[in-house]
Write a structure and sequence with these properties.
alpha/beta, four-stranded mixed β-sheet, three-stranded mixed β-sheet, about 30% strand, elongated
């Protein structure tokens, strides 16, 4: 099973770029600071002399993609696409597991909930400069969260908690009883979360 999916348009784009490179040059996909909130994914040329013995090779028509051993688990389910619209063209890379490794379906509930928070909830909050951290999962299955960044002091935090985060987590994990916020919110100037 492949770690990375590359659309046909992105494959064509890579083949076109590689024609102008030294013989044997391939593509490398990697994650800087994998498994952290500051994780960043990248795509670069991979000259033949930079391929390591423990790199993972994924073959596509006309080229290979190399992934270093450390980045590999954080690149699972990555999709690379090449999108063209009226404004031009752009290579997109979506790596939902770059900030945290995907957990197994049978992992403990707290790990699955934390993964959902990091992979689904926090990217939504990040657009407003905020994030939420899982503090604990109580014995009676309440998720205890703490808001940070732009969400701390936001006038909409209660709405975000109950109508956004809680509904999303309860839909994914019916065994949960609810979500609680332990953040000591200071009066903020944020108008929305």
């Amino acid at each position: 099973m492949s770690i990375i999916t590359i659309s046909e348009s992105a494959q064509q784009h890579f083949r076109k770029l590689l024609v102008n490179q030294s013989d044997g040059t391939q593509i490398r996909v990697f994650v800087i600071n994998p498994g952290t909130p500051s994780a960043e994914c990248g795509v670069s040329y991979c000259p033949i002399d930079t391929i390591e013995d423990n790199d993972i090779e994924e073959k596509f028509e006309g080229f290979s993609v190399y992934i270093d051993e450390i980045s590999a688990p954080f690149l699972e389910e990555t999709v690379i696409d090449y999108v063209m619209d009226e404004l031009g063209s752009q290579l997109t890379l979506k790596a939902p597991n770059s900030k945290m490794k995907k957990v197994a379906d049978d992992a403990p509930l707290i790990e699955r909930v934390n993964y959902a928070i990091q992979a689904q909830v926090n990217p939504q909050l990040a657009s407003h400069g905020g994030y939420v951290s899982l503090i604990e999962l109580t014995e009676d299955n309440y998720v205890v969260l703490q808001f940070g960044g732009g969400c701390n002091g936001c006038s909409m935090v209660d709405y975000t908690l109950k109508e956004g985060i809680e509904k999303q987590l309860l839909a994914a994990f019916p065994e949960l009883a609810g979500v609680k916020d332990i953040t000591e919110h200071q009066a903020g100037t944020h108008s929305f979360c």
